[in-house]
Amino acid sequence: MRQYDPDLTPPWKRQRPAPEVPAEPDLVVEEVTTGFCGAVIRCEKTAQGPTVTLEDRFGKHRVFPMEPRGFLLEGRVVTLVRPRAAAPGAPRRTASGSIAVPGARARVARAGRIYVEGRHDAELVERVWGDDLRIEGVVVEYLEGVDDLPAIVDGFAPGPDARLGVLVDHLVTGSKESRIAAQVTDEHVLVLGHPYIDIWEAVKPSSLNIPAWPTVPHGQDWKKGVCRALGWPENTGAAWQRILSSVHSYKDLQPELLGRVEELIDFVTAPLG
């Protein structure tokens, strides 16, 4: 006897199954019905079925059922599923790649500090190295620029038990930043930098699904020029949240930044001797 398909919808009109994507923390998706866009905060099992909580760039939380074809990921319809539990015995790693210490409590803050230029720099360092810094008791502060760096260093009064690490943007030969950094000669201070005009560029273009960071003509506001070139709204705060949400681990950052931050952490936390 011939078997008939009970679904009378023509094959060309049937919806194809959407790919399943684990709802890992910080994954940025858009809910298809409401258009709410945010990063995954957590997944929960409820009597009505699994749900996912998203947080938008303003810090607002919304809870959605994890229904088939319920979300957009980079413009593509997907089905979110609960992430698989880590394999027994497999050590969890922090975003920086370090082995996580289960149940570790934050150490009392050291006298030493790491200074970065601005808020975006501090937020990026926290996103990738935050777990490590809390265990080591290292506080990151930002300067709002490096023009007054020598005076800030003098005011900090660095010493053997209060080392100071400084991360500078665009620290290349001949730059204004390099001339300012050269004025800091205290042996208990380490000034390092990366070659990028702004910390935005330290995020790999592939992590943002762009071919490359655009070249902005000299004299233009660099961040607004980047937004224009990429077709983004000229809202640098929103652009930064978009960039930051694409960073999930050290793998999303350029090696020129990774090495410098690791070196600064090692310098500030080195034992006395």
UniProtKB/TrEMBL annotation:
Which residues are in the DUF3097 domain?
A: 20-83, 113-269
Ranges for the region named Disordered are 1-25
Record's InterPro entries?
DUF3097_C, DUF3097_N
Signal peptide positions are: none
Q: State the name under which the record lists this protein.
A: DUF3097 domain-containing protein
